[in-house]
Design brief:
The protein has 242 residues and is of the alpha+beta class. The protein contains 7 helices and 10 strands. The strands form 4 sheets. Strands 5-6-3-10 form a 4-stranded antiparallel beta sheet. A two-stranded antiparallel sheet has the order 1-4. Strands 2-9 form a two-stranded antiparallel sheet.
């Protein structure tokens, strides 16, 4: 999807990040800051089954903060407001990345932190939205100053932090969240009746009865042409007949 534009005069200078490189083979030694909201709610109701195995594999996603966050919020408001002179003034994805995506220096700092903590660095999308780290329970506990215990949730064995995870203070301006330490997170939508899937997928209007029926002529072009609205959805019976 195309992204909206905004003049950002002076924003780069005021929000630049100073991220000194870490010495080779050394972990950050600065103060730690706690990451809120990462302790599961079931800690008070489910008994711990003991420490998670040190060699158990974990996948951690480190979410990155966008650059120029306040300018980004302004630009979203302006491009979405029909009364604004910036309404529908769009940027390409590449232009958006150049202005708002986390910097290469921020990504390098998190990658280095991950490698020095024992993780392998996996995929990093072009917009630098997150960095994937794979390693062991021991690596995760060492990197995030926490402890992972095992629990049985909905009949499935999971691990979750029992000590609030933290990150080096030097990364506080570039890291927004860490996910993957609590593997019960993946189960929560299925364990809540209110989050059960609907009987059929239904798209919000405007939508088409079949693909290509109605073109989104009032919306910006994509991939060089006007695109159709999504289909309104099908019932299970319609899908079975098809």
């Amino acid at each position: 999807m195309l992204i909206a534009s905004l003049a950002l005069a002076g924003a780069g200078a005021s929000e630049a990040l100073a991220l000194p490189a870490l010495p080779t083979g050394a972990l950050p030694t600065d103060a730690q800051i706690k990451l809120p909201g990462l302790l599961p709610s079931f800690l008070d109701t489910l008994p711990s089954l003991g420490a998670a195995p040190n060699r158990q594999r974990v996948l951690v996603l480190v979410d990155m903060r966008p650059r120029h966050k306040r300018a980004l919020a302004r630009f979203v408001r302006r491009v979405s407001n029909p009364k604004s002179p910036r309404y529908r003034h769009y940027l390409t994805p590449a232009q958006f990345r150049n202005r708002f995506a986390p910097s290469a220096a921020a990504v390098s700092a998190v990658k280095q932190f991950g490698r020095l903590s024992g993780f392998q660095v996996g995929g990093v999308p072009r917009n630098h939205h997150f960095i994937a780290l794979t390693g062991t329970v021991a690596d995760a506990e060492n990197a995030f100053h926490t402890r992972l215990d095992q629990f049985r949730v909905e009949g499935t064995l999971v691990h979750a932090p029992v000590v609030p995870p933290s990150i080096p203070a030097s990364l506080r301006r570039v890291v927004s969240k860490v996910s993957g330490l609590d593997t019960a997170d993946q189960m929560r939508p299925l364990s809540t009746p209110a989050a059960s899937p609907p009987p059929a997928f239904v798209g919000a209007p405007p939508c088409s009865s079949f693909f290509g029926e109605q073109l989104a002529s009032s919306a910006p072009t994509a991939y060089g042409s006007v695109q159709p609205w999504v289909v309104c959805g099908y019932t299970p019976d319609q899908l079975q007949r098809a």
